[in-house]
């Protein structure tokens, strides 16, 4: 039925193209002889991080939660109070302050496990470290059955249920020791959510207080997508369990300790050129005490200790370094390893190791590289061979740190860069710097800017890379997503990302790689509001953004060809007659001598004590408005003035922290919409105007200039605002001007695929009506028949869901109306790709 509709849709478009009443909105002229930038084969990759239970309970196929009983282990120096975990008190290496961070914790006595005891029986369980099987994962569970009148069950429900499929085999591994006092039998059971027995197998152990490493295969006779595993004890005595694991026999590529097949296939469907691992913020940890440690992810899964994740739960380390490298090999992708430079997460505690300890972190990084690509005669290359892979893995990239900044990071980056390049010159090394330059670092191969923004940012910044300088380094857009004001991830978000992708492709000589983030979300634990792929125990759902990523990767041209237009023309608009205010990002600031002059020359001396919206720690002392917290962002919106034609003057000073000042303008009464001059932002590297959307800074609008703000220096600020333009002066020097514009809603990119000899035209229409265009192809003859791939829906607010996983899905059809000049009516709210074969 769907294919029939496709053909009808294609026919309808063909006939509309022949309609003499067809009036094109734009004439798109593409010259196939004017070759533009190449689009690197490395352009589209994936970024994996343990967030939203992306690995445990997601990509990693293990069905048992807390299989090694290590879940309640916490990082050194941390402590829990009830359901809250408090980090060790360490000083931020830039500000010197101790941040009052807190994270979720569980009050379950044994997370993931419960004892089911009848009234006639008596049993208890508790965690011990008695005689561990692996000292690296020392916890084991002591189960004591005080009488054996009726069987006792130790039950694990996995990660919100286990998907147990009739006829599929599951591999059970249990490391158990029974005391000489235990006289009963032990039986492993697979249960439905209603406790129906789906399968059973006996577990035979010696009662000599020695460990038994038991392996069994068990096959359910019925299906339950919310199943459970139980160990049943029918006698009195004591039994210790060190490790209990249940794996589907069918994993991706049939790998032991492998990946969930449907999830891995969904990732492979993106055709990623690279995989970035292990993060993300988990690389640094909340503080250095709980950073991700790759060496602890190697070897027998039962020996891996895991670590409390930055995102509020324990990571088992099951999907480890070896498994990541193996996955890259299985999907023909290059690997990217992200190392720690001895710095904790700067958005959290922000600690840093001593200078004398930098060598430790460098050695750890060098060992990781050697493990992946070193000769089998080297120390870590030999360990790789011992683990079953004598040949090198496809490691090609190393990112040095994650979202680190400042002089200390720049110094450490240079140390790592020189050492790695000397031994491994073939590796591409990536820094954490954004578009504002590389600070005090000497050199880098690539920078890694990140964008989490609203749709308007991506729509309005498709030319962001057009005027960037070339030759010093390439760009890897390591994390980007439209995640503000788009629900769980609607079609409008996806269309804005498709528009931004067109700008990245067009600038393929600069932008060589990109990866959406975050990648995966278990629907039962959403720590991040908008993610690319959703999953449950038995279902995987790609959002519309997933299909945009897939379409872009599957239809990557070899190189760009010139087009006369890349987007519909934006129109000038006026600023809202809104409020003005001050703020900062993780920085302590002061403002004084605030004066506003209206268009008619009259002045307003605002009462700083009157404000409509406040975030941060603000107070007024001797006429000076100061903000003393390290919150991000802070805001202080004045109540005494509202307008869009005025001059605001003040003095501003930075007294501590990482960045500069915010000057808000045109803020709506609820503070949800407007603009902000971010002065000395992005780690005190640059100044730009950002849009305010949903009450938060939602991305740069227009030009960015390099600028640093000195500490303890008073700056004279003058903001001149007219309805259609604003100008920022500092110390009487024009720093930046901004012209507000409407959001363009149509975007065009064009390229050529040398392998298939096809012209590829990609068009985004984010408007609620059709976009009629006349397309002229110059410089080459083309065939009339080709392909159309289109992602569209009736509303840009539409989302895929578990109930309607393909509500928004790319439709493919043949089309026979192409030519050197042809008309095409692009559907409302659509991302359309035309593939036209050349003669």
UniProtKB/TrEMBL annotation:
Its EC number is 3.2.1.55. Gene3D superfamilies: Galactose-binding domain-like, Glycosidases, Golgi alpha-mannosidase II. Keywords: Glycoprotein, Glycosidase, Hydrolase, Signal. GO terms for biological process: L-arabinose metabolic process. It catalyses: Hydrolysis of terminal non-reducing alpha-L-arabinofuranoside residues in alpha-L-arabinosides. It is an enzyme of class 3 (hydrolase). It comes from the Bacteria. One of its GO terms (molecular function) is alpha-L-arabinofuranosidase activity. InterPro entries: AL/BT2_dom, Alpha-L-AF_C, ASD1_cat, ConA-like_dom_sf, Galactose-bd-like_sf, GH, Glyco_hydro_b, Glycosyl_Hydrolase_51. Belongs to the glycosyl hydrolase 51 family. This is non-reducing end alpha-L-arabinofuranosidase. It comes from Bacteroides cellulosilyticus.
């Amino acid at each position: 039925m769907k294919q029939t509709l496709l053909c009808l849709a294609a026919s309808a478009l063909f006939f509309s193209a022949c309609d003499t009443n067809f009036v094109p909105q734009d004439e798109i002229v593409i010259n196939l002889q004017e070759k533009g930038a190449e689009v690197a084969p490395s352009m589209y990759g994936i970024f994996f991080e343990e967030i939203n239970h992306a690995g445990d309970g997601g990509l990693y196929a293990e069905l048992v939660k807390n299989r090694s009983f290590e879940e309640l282990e916490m990082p050194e120096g941390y402590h829990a109070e009830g359901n809250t975990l408090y980090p060790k008190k360490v000083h931020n290496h830039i500000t010197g302050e101790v941040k009052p961070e807190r994270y979720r914790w569980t009050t379950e006595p044994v997370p993931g496990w419960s004892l089911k005891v009848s009234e006639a029986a008596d049993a208890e369980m508790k965690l011990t470290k008695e005689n561990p099987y692996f000292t690296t994962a020392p916890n084991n569970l002591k189960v004591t059955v005080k009488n054996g009148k009726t069987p006792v069950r130790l039950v694990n429900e996995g990660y919100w249920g286990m998907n147990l499929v009739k006829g599929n085999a599951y591999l059970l591994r249990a490391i158990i020791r029974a005391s000489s006092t235990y006289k009963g039998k032990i039986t492993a059971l697979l249960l439905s959510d209603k406790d129906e027995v789906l399968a059973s197998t006996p577990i035979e152990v010696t009662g000599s207080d020695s460990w038994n490493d038991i392996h069994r295969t068990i096959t359910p006779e019925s299906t339950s997508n919310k199943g459970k595993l139980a160990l049943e004890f029918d006698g009195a005595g004591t039994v210790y369990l060190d490790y209990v694991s249940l794996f589907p026999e069918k994993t991706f590529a049939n790998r032991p300790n492998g990946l969930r097949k449907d999830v891995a296939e969904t990732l492979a469907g993106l055709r990623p050129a690279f995989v970035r691992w292990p993060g993300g913020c988990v690389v640094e940890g909340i503080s250095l005490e709980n950073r991700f440690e790759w060496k602890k992810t190697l070897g027998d899964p039962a020996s891996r200790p895991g670590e409390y994740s930055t995102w509020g739960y324990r990571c088992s380390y099951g999907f480890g370094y070896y498994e990541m490298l193996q996955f890259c090999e299985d999907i023909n992708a290059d690997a990217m390893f992200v190392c720690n430079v001895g710095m904790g997460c700067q958005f959290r505690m922000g600690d840093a190791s001593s200078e004398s300890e930098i060598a430790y972190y460098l050695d750890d990084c060098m060992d990781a590289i050697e493990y992946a690509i070193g000769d089998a005669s080297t120390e870590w290359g030999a360990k790789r061979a011992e683990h079953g892979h004598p040949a090198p893995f496809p490691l090609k990239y190393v990112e040095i740190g994650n979202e680190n900044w400042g002089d200390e990071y720049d110094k450490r980056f240079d140390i790592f860069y020189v050492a790695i390049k000397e031994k491994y010159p073939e590796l591409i090394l990536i820094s954490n710097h954004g578009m504002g330059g590389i600070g005090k670092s000497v050199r880098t191969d690539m920078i890694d800017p990140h964008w989490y923004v609203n749709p308007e940012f991506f729509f309005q910044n498709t030319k962001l890379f057009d005027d960037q300088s070339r030759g010093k380094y390439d760009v890897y857009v390591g994390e980007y997503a439209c995640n503000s004001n788009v629900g769980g991830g609607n079609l409008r978000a996806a269309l804005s990302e498709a528009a931004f992708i067109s700008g990245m492709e067009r600038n393929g000589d600069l932008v060589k790689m990109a990866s959406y983030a975050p990648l995966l979300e278990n629907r039962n634990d959403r720590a991040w509001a908008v993610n690319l792929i959703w999953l449950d125990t038995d279902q995987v759902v790609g959002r519309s953004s997933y299909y945009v990523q897939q379409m872009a990767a599957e239809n990557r041209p070899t190189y760009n060809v010139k087009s006369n237009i890349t987007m519909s023309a934006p129109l000038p608009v006026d600023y809202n007659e809104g409020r003005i205010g001050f703020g900062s990002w993780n920085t302590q600031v002061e403002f004084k001598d605030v004066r506003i002059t209206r268009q008619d020359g009259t002045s307003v001396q605002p009462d700083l004590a009157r404000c409509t919206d406040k975030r941060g720690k603000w107070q007024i002392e001797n006429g000076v408005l100061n903000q003393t917290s390290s919150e991000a962002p802070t805001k202080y919106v004045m109540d005494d003035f509202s307008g869009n034609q005025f001059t605001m003057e003040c003095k501003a000073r930075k007294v501590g922290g990482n960045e500069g000042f915010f000057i808000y303008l045109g803020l709506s009464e609820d503070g949800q919409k407007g603009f902000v001059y971010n002065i000395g932002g992005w780690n005190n590297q640059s100044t730009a105007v950002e849009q305010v959307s949903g009450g938060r800074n939602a991305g740069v609008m227009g030009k960015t200039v390099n600028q640093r703000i000195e500490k303890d220096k008073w700056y004279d600020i003058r903001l001149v605002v007219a309805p259609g333009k604003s100008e920022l002066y500092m110390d009487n020097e024009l720093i930046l001007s901004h012209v507000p514009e409407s959001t363009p809603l149509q975007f065009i990119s064009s390229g050529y695929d040398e392998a298939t000899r096809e012209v590829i035209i990609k068009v985004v229409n984010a408007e609620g009506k059709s976009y009629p265009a006349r397309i002229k192809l110059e410089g080459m003859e083309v065939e009339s028949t080709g392909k159309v791939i289109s992602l569209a829906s009736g509303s840009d607010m539409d989302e895929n869901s578990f109930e309607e996983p393909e509500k928004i899905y790319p439709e493919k059809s043949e089309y026979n109306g192409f030519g050197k000049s042809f008309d095409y009516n692009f559907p409302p709210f659509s991302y359309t790709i035309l593939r036209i074969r050349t003669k």
